[in-house]
Amino acid sequence: MRHRAASLRLPVLAQDVLLALFITVMQVQGTVFRNAGEVASRPLTDLGYLGYVLLIVSGVVVAVRRRWPVPVFLIAALASLVYFSFDFPDGPGWLALFVALYTLAAYGDGRRSLVAAGVGTTVLAIGWLVAAADIEPRAAIGWVFFRIGALVMSAALGESVRSRRVIAAEAQERAELAERTREEEARARVDAERLRIAREVHDTVAHAIAIINVQSGVTAHVLDKRPEVAREALRAIEQTSSRALREMRAILGVLRDDDNGRVPYPGLGQIDELTAKAREAGLDIKLEETSPAAPLPSAVESAAYRIVQESITNVIRHVGPTRVTVALNPGIDVLEIRVTDEGRRAAPGDDPADPHLPAQHPTSTGSSAMPGRGIPGMRERCQLLGGELDAGPLPGGGFEVKARLPLTPTGSRL
Which of 73, 106, 118, 211 could be stapled to 158 by a disulfide with Cβ–Cβ 3.0 to 4.6 Å? Predict the structure, then answer.
């Protein structure tokens, strides 16, 4: 029903043309009928039908009132001043003027349109009062004050309509801005969750694949000569892959609607298991851990675990069997993490004076080094919690990752 009513509505220009025709007829016919049988001081036919011309012109210009509100008001006001200055008979010849003044206030630009309306009303009032100075009977001057009051009311009504339109437009703009803000926040949350999932998947898969790669190499090397060692390596591959699958299910569980089957994110309580897997992969790893005075926030524990995991993964992938030291020092307001390796051990035939070759980590600048996401991912984790991370080679060989995580993190849970 609403759509049908909207489709039957006339265009704005057609509405104004009909209004102009109605006002023109009302001004001419109303003035003629009001003064029928009376002897007017100056008939409408005087001065070459000037009275009719003024009534018709002031009514016709209303057809373009929305497009040119100021010129329409000026034409209507000038026609009214000339009409009453020449002492043409009184009547509803001011209808077009009232509509023009209302349009100026309603469709103008606020302050300037009100100034124009005020100046125009003042000039019209003075002109009307001067023209009616010798009016007889004196009681007829009440029509002059009626026209002045009607002008003020027309301007006030137009300003009220304009103000309501401005308020409605501002409310609509605020609603659209709020909607855009909600959409941007939703996209930001989606992007943050996508980044978190990508980070978790990278850490889990990279660590598992690195260990599986080492163990599979051991299996291929000793399968024929030492089957018991190969069996242990295959068992380590099975356990590592099983753990990786469990962690993947926990990470991707956020994409489901229910909480069935989810497990907590890994934390520092699983560091011993992580270092045990690293030893199975051939690392000589030493864990230096200080018990915290109070339980650590879950976000800090998860980030610390992932940093240690990624650091060990980088050693397995880029260095191979070597000695690694993992130090966890929780302080009063910060958790310090340090993962240091001694670099690639010298192979037979190497110079014994240089027992530690530089570790080929992802940040190495060699021509064969391919940039990875391990260290940037660790740095992102630290920054999300308001911490910092440094990673680089040591002067005597090896590589060190140092991270500081505040115990009152400023970011969200990883």
Answer: 106
